[in-house]
Amino acid sequence: MTSKPQPQLPAGNASMLSGVSENLTFHASPESFIVNHVLHYHKQHPGEVANRVPLRAKILNRNVIIVSAYHQVRAVLCPRDERTDDEGDGKVPYVAAAPYKRLMEAFFPPPNLLLNDGCPHRKMKEPWAVCVQSLESEKMQSRIVARTSGLIKRLVGSEAVDLYKELKELSWEIFLSTVLDFSPADQGYADINAGIWHSPRKTGIGARKKLQSIILDRLRSRRPVWISEDVLKSRPEEEIVNHLLMSTSSLAVKAFSSLLLAFLLNVYLFGGDDAVPGQILKWIATGSPQEAEEKAEAVLQETLRLSPPIVGVMRRATTERTLPSLGSSESDTMVPASWDVWSYFPGANRDHAVFGGDADYFKMARYLVDDSRLPPPIAFGLGSKTCLGQQFVFKAATAVLQAFRQSRVELKGSVISPGMKGWLGWEIASPEQWAKDIKQLPTQRPSKPTMIHVIRNT
Ligand code: HEM
């Protein structure tokens, strides 16, 4: 029996591009950057075409390993030896706070969960994990249906609209009425308009401060119903404000609109042949209400798999680590201490070793089949830092679809570029088409407007 070779650093590409141009290419399109690096590697190692090899790059002058095999993303985000004991002092194998501080602290001020690791993180998360369940209640669902019905009423019969833009306004209204518990009848509602997060990055900090002070006033005058007494008593006011800020941030709004856009396009226009109504809508509507719900959830899971709104998360290795390879004759990947690891979700979610040969394609019933080998998509992270809003987002997206279905409207439009079809999993797109048609940071969305008519079903 041959023994496994020694762990090795991933294929280095630092010589291929200078540090500066690597930064630019990566931020212009992670997909194109990663795919081009993989193609370059495959040219040199033709025997490894089927593997999603980890790649080494210099991003923002740091050594970064980009990981896009499903099992390796798992190994980074939920390492088996993650410490959760009470003696834990934050010394987990991979930390998030260190890489995030530089990128996100200005927008997500501490104290907050995202900028925390290890035992302090776990202690902070426990009461929030309980309290967030109230956001998933029927009452919140009906608010979401009401806000969405309002949007549909406004759009029916109007000129074609940029669907992503409209969904961004809707997402903000949904977060206002659920997370912050504001109703349109409330005094001052109009002042907290969606414009608060529309500012460019350089004025974004001003917008953040404005929202922070609105949230603080809100908390003191009338606390949002879902914030429990326990959280109110046990957590500092500053932390509560910061979490409300994170949950209604520009990033959360953009991520939710990205998901809604991909979800509605899949349900109403799958295939891109301008068919009205879409085949998926018909499929969902066939059968009992419970079956319809299950089918809608399966389509949402498949949407999250192929088109995760957030393309990845960062970690920094606290000690030297290895990432396991799949084959027993291939060496594991060495991760030196203090290197960053970037988990790329669209890659992991299209890993043929896990999702099969049709991994790149949208299959509406993929998640309807009872198959224990089919893992969930990675869209909300994994492990101890999994998104706190995951269930809420899932329920909110299905409530939006419910409102569309109840309104008996159809979406008509065919502005589906090759890169968009690749993003949605309708067709395979080249890295160049992907880079041209899809913006990936901070969240995935089409680079050009997706013009859609909302018409009443006759
Ligand atoms: C489609 C919308 C959203 C997506 C795709 C998303 C995705 C994510 C991801 C990938 C992470 C993991 C970060 C990491 O591992 O480094 C995360 C963390 C988090 N998310 Fe979300 N999120 C969404 C919306 C929300 C909403 C609406 C809320 C609040 C209600 C929320 C609250 C949080 C919090 C508090 C964390 C930090 C968790 C921790 O560090 O333990 N998210 N989210």
Automatic annotation (TrEMBL):
GO terms for molecular function: heme binding; iron ion binding; monooxygenase activity; oxidoreductase activity, acting on paired donors, with incorporation or reduction of molecular oxygen. CDD domains: cytochrome_P450 (cd00302). Keywords: Heme, Iron, Metal-binding, Monooxygenase, Oxidoreductase. Pfam families: p450 (PF00067). The keyword 4Fe-4S does not apply. The keyword DNA repair does not apply. InterPro entries: Cyt_P450, Cyt_P450_CS, Cyt_P450_sf. GO terms for biological process: sterol metabolic process. PROSITE patterns: CYTOCHROME_P450. Belongs to the cytochrome P450 family. PANTHER family: CYTOCHROME P450 26, P450, PUTATIVE (EUROFUNG)-RELATED. This is Cytochrome P450. It comes from Extremus antarcticus. The lineage of its organism: Eukaryota, Fungi, Dikarya, Ascomycota, Pezizomycotina.
